[in-house]
Amino acid sequence: MGKLGVIIVAAGKGSRMGTAESKQYLQLGKKPILVHTLQLFQNIHEVDEIILVVGADDVARCNGYVTSYALTKVTCVLAGGAERQDSVGQGLHALQEGTQWVLVHDGVRPFVKKEHMFECLKKAQEIGAAVLAVPVKDTIKVVDAADKRIQSTPDRRSLWAIQTPQAFRLSLLQEAHEKAQQDQFMGTDDASLVERLGAAVHVVEGDYYNIKITTPEDLPWAEWILHNVRGEERT
Ligand SMILES: Nc1ccn([C@@H]2O[C@H](COP(=O)(O)OP(=O)(O)OP(=O)(O)O)[C@@H](O)[C@H]2O)c(=O)n1
Ligand SMILES: C[C@](O)(CO)[C@H](O)COP(=O)(O)O
Q1: What are the C-alpha distances in Å from 198 to residues 142, 153, 179, 192, 194?
Q2: pLDDT in tens, 144-160
Q3: Is the CB of 84 under 6 A from ligand 1?
Q4: Residue 88 in contact with residue 53, Cβ under 8 Å?
């Protein structure tokens, strides 16, 4: 199958969370959010290495996590860039030779299920690229940013909320990042860069517990998921 690398991006500032400490370092149960995420991938046999991308000022702290939590698959902790896409780009350069498949995952999504991750990887191995996603539950409107007038109501049956992991043949994701850089295109996820190449990307249905911890109201919800779905003890 070729080697499987994982890039965990955690170099964001968490401005929407509004805490002094970046959200990936906030405590969830007994451990920082980022450690929960890293342990998920550490414990997957098929993962050959994990590249951890963090803020320049947090490299030492994260090397500390690698030691204290015995995260032996983390081969590299490096500084990310200004945007998420830049951070993924840094991670791509650090993957070891012989890596054929890559999973890109947000450091602040600590609840992805192993079986969903595997389904996503399997689909990528069939067609080149796949992402976890869930059907949207709300009615979504396209709204004019200036006057707030509704412009259209897309058919909900075709709308999916996109998550991570996003799984790719490494050469495809590298090509997509190179092209985006040439065109100065900035996307909010990696799939959008691959879509620009005209390559197929499929969604794989995951679950609604795979939240991205983004704003303050996500924190109690994350604690609830941890204790009621993932079954970890409260500190
Ligand atoms: N320059 C950046 C920006 C984001 N991320 C990471 O990408 C993931 C998803 O991003 P998001 O939730 O938007 O995180 P932040 O950018 O930290 O949040 P905000 O937009 O509220 O500032 C997070 O794990 C975040 O750390 C990153 O590695 N490098
Ligand atoms: C990649 C992502 O998690 C998919 O939902 C998301 O796009 C990341 O980012 P954002 O920074 O909150 O847009």
Answers
A1: 25, 26, 12, 10, 7
A2: 999 999 999 999 999 99
A3: yes
A4: yes
**What's the 99 CA to ligand 2 centre distance in angstroms?**
24
| Smallest-distance ligand from the CA of 26 | 1
**Does the predicted interface ipTM exceed a cut of 0.85?**
yes
- Ligand 2 centroid to Cα of residue 188, in Å, is 5
**How are the residues of the chain apportioned to helix, strand and coil, as percentages rounded to the nearest 5?**
35, 25, 40
User: Tokens for 93?
Assistant: 């350069």
Give per-residue pLDDT as tens, 90-114. 999 999 999 999 999 999 999 999 9
Rounded to two decimals, the pTM is 0.97
